[in-house]
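Supplementary notes for students who missed Thursday's class. We covered one full example, reproduced here. Read the sequence, then the structure, then the short commentary at the end.
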Amino acid sequence: MIYPIVGYGDPVLRKVGEDIAKDYPNLSDVIANMYDTMYNACGVGLAAPQVGLAIRLFIVDTEPFSDSDDLAKEEAEQLKGFKKTFINAKILKEEGEEWAFNEGCLSIPDVREDVYRHEKITIEYYDENFNKQTDVYDGLIARVIQHEYDHIEGVLFTDKISSLKKTLIKKKLQNIMDGKARPDYRMRFAGPKKGR
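Structure (token representation):
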């Protein structure tokens, strides 16, 4: 089932997600539906708050990034095979130089800005089978994870840009809140025109 993606301005995007237990209702269905929703919207990551659930769950599949001509062959291979579910995640460490990358978000259509993030992270989480994992990631994989992790902390990528950039995108953000954005996937808007 494909969920509508929650648009900028909805209060659920500002909530810190709650940890969930192994017996969370229909967890495997929720995860499968999130993957369907992400693929339908051509995304590389999706967090539960983006489908209206204030829980600590996000998914990542970086395969679409692997076709970029700007990547070294080794990094392209890593991206091609990277698909993971993160439950109750906690970033333990962020290290290395901060580097800029032009980010977008399914909840904030038609807005892209350069965001600085650390190049390497250590993250602890449970996988979809509720096995505890601690992994280290770097490069684009780390960046996608950090972006989705921010969602379960109630943070959006637009929070990490300069005041000037925020001023420049203010009208676009207002249009999303008012339900005037028209991406090619279903959205649930915070403003007067809900749905599509």
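Commentary. The helical segments are 27-40, 73-80, 139-152, 163-177. The chain has one domain: 5-188. If anything here is unclear, bring it to office hours.
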